[in-house]
Specification:
One of its GO terms (biological process) is proteolysis. Pfam families: Peptidase_M14. One of its GO terms (molecular function) is metallocarboxypeptidase activity. InterPro entries: Peptidase_M14. Keywords: Hydrolase, Metalloprotease, Protease, Signal, Zinc. It is a single chain. The protein has about 500 residues and is an alpha/beta fold. It is built from eleven helices and 23 strands. The strands form five sheets. It has an eight-stranded mixed β-sheet, with helices on both faces. A five-stranded mixed β-sheet has the order 16-17-19-23-18. The radius of gyration is 27 Å and the shape is elongated.
């Protein structure tokens, strides 16, 4: 009798230990995924301005792989093939689509990282892959708007925002997506986007690196079991992300948009999570955010596979701060401005805007002063305290140059210290014909006949100016980028040609 009791207790102990160990492994999964991402990162996608031709070989090489079923599901307006890749055999169906906006590619990169991961083995994740693919069937549609991606633009070739085309379905791409929802009847959907890198997480200086939305299916913002699961999934992903981007997760206001795919897919009975990849300082190509997508999406799929998402409290969804518009790329604070013989203090809010070139495969920055005055409620991803410094328009260097190559040989630091921010090209310059609109030299280049700005730098001007202490130039701001003349590092400058 004693022996039977002992054996029973021992068996209970081992069962408990196994359960605790299994739960510990699940809790550690996001960290392990984060650490292993570099192993499975798709190395052919290294910058975000890629096109459909860059991902087609990645799909083609998986044709014939028994892990996948790849099928053509339609064509874009310009006739580009739309493909869907299916993986897994489980009862829970998950539809994930990326780049319905052509200039929002972060999750497309992460999707191919996920495919590489699903093909891995003997790396400590075999049990996870087995459980995931036995409990879910995943349907990926990478790059739903290839025509937009070709031009690196948000809208389709027709000029229509596809995410406002769920009701009318005037675009062939929207027809394809609606057809997949009707045919597959997915239990879960992931609507994967990018957002402005200047959104803040609430009223804070922190950029919203990832934002979520559990889309509303009616104007009353009702919560049924379908939408509740969206909230629970988001709560789980937020917990995972806080370790890596603390205070940089936000959510959209859940106003109902009757034309939106997210709102309608939720209404049609699929638990829908909208993910927006925003900004992260020092990550202009969104490679770190891509890594976060990889980890967060796989972690969410794990919660779907084992149904652990139901343990999350939906009310925690509302504790995530809303997206705010409180961040500029650069804020100059407390600068002394002199106008009409008078002086006053002002802040400047500056944004660096991307301008595409080389068939939209590359970009340069063109920076504007977006606001001027009291900006104390706003923040800058980069800030200068200009207290005691006077803002002035830089001078035009008296010597003219034939071409940008000559300008690149100048001692930029010497010119900036003398207060020269502008250099002029002669009439025989063919920079426009060559398609040159920027220079890596930290100077503002004026084409022949282009007048230099007059007056004190202000609202709407290109963000080129100097900050002086007395007669000494302390900082030069060229095209929205700051150069500390006491600690000068030109590097690859972001000069502009106008």
């Amino acid at each position: 009798m004693i022996m039977r009791i002992f054996i029973s207790q021992l068996f209970f102990f081992f069962i408990t230990l196994t359960t605790v160990t299994s739960q510990a492994q699940k809790d550690e999964l996001p960290d392990r995924l984060f650490k292993i991402h570099d192993t499975y990162r798709e190395t052919t996608l290294t910058q975000r301005r890629f096109k459909q031709k860059d991902i087609l070989p990645l799909l083609a090489k998986r044709q014939g792989n028994p892990l996948y079923n790849i099928e053509t599901v339609g064509q874009s307006f310009e006739g580009r093939t739309l493909q869907m890749i299916k993986v897994g055999t489980g009862k829970k169906k998950v539809l994930l689509w990326t780049q319905m906006h052509g200039d929002e590619p972060t999750a497309t990169m992460a999707s191919f990282d996920i495919f590489n991961f699903l093909e891995g083995k003997n790396d400590g994740f075999d049990d996870f892959r087995k459980d995931l693919l036995e409990n879910t069937t995943l349907y990926f549609v990478p790059m739903l708007n290839p025509d937009g991606a070709e031009r690196y633009q948000r809208r389709t070739m027709q000029g229509i925002d596809m995410n406002r085309d769920a009701a009318s379905r005037q675009t062939p791409e929207a027809v394809v997506l609606k057809g997949l929802v009707d045919k597959l009847k997915p239990d879960y959907g992931f609507n994967l986007h990018d957002q402005s890198p200047r959104y803040s997480a609430g009223r804070s200086a922190k950029v919203a690196t990832i934002s979520f939305l559990a889309t509303s299916y009616d104007y009353e913002l009702s919560i049924n079991p379908v939408r509740e699961r969206s909230m629970q999934l988001i709560v789980g992903m937020n917990k995972v992300l806080q370790k890596y981007i603390p205070g940089q997760v936000a959510r959209y206001a859940d106003d109902h948009e009757p034309r939106g795919f997210g709102d309608n897919v939720q209404k049609w009975g699929t638990t829908l999570v909208l993910i927006e990849s925003g900004g992260y300082v020092g990550d202009p190509e969104k490679q770190y955010i891509r890594k976060l997508n990889f980890m967060a999406i796989l972690s969410a799929l794990n919660k779907i596979a084992d149904n652990s998402l139901t343990k999350e409290k939906r009310d925690d969804y509302y504790k995530i701060p809303e997206n705010g518009k409180w961040v500029y790329d650069l804020v100059v604070r407390n600068a002394t401005v002199k106008q009409s013989g008078k002086s006053f203090l002002a802040d400047l809010g500056i944004n660096r805007n991307e301008v595409s070139y080389s068939n939209a495969t590359k970009f340069f920055y063109y920076s504007k002063i977006e606001d001027f005055g009291d900006l104390h409620p706003q923040f800058g991803s980069e800030e200068i305290d200009a207290k005691g410094l006077t803002i002035e328009k830089g001078k035009v260097y008296p010597t003219t140059y034939k071409n940008v190559s000559e300008v690149s040989k100048l001692n930029a630091l010497s010119l900036l210290k003398q207060g020269y921010t502008y250099v002029r090209l002669t009439s025989d310059s063919n920079t426009r014909a060559l398609g040159l609109y920027f220079t890596t030299t930290p100077l503002h280049v004026l084409r022949s006949g282009q007048a230099a700005p007059s007056g004190t730098p202000g609202l709407g001007n290109t963000a080129t100016f100097i900050l002086k202490k007395g007669r000494v130039v302390k900082y030069a701001v060229i095209n929205g980028f700051v150069y500390d003349l006491d600690d000068f590092e030109a590097g690859d400058g972001n000069g502009i040609i106008e």
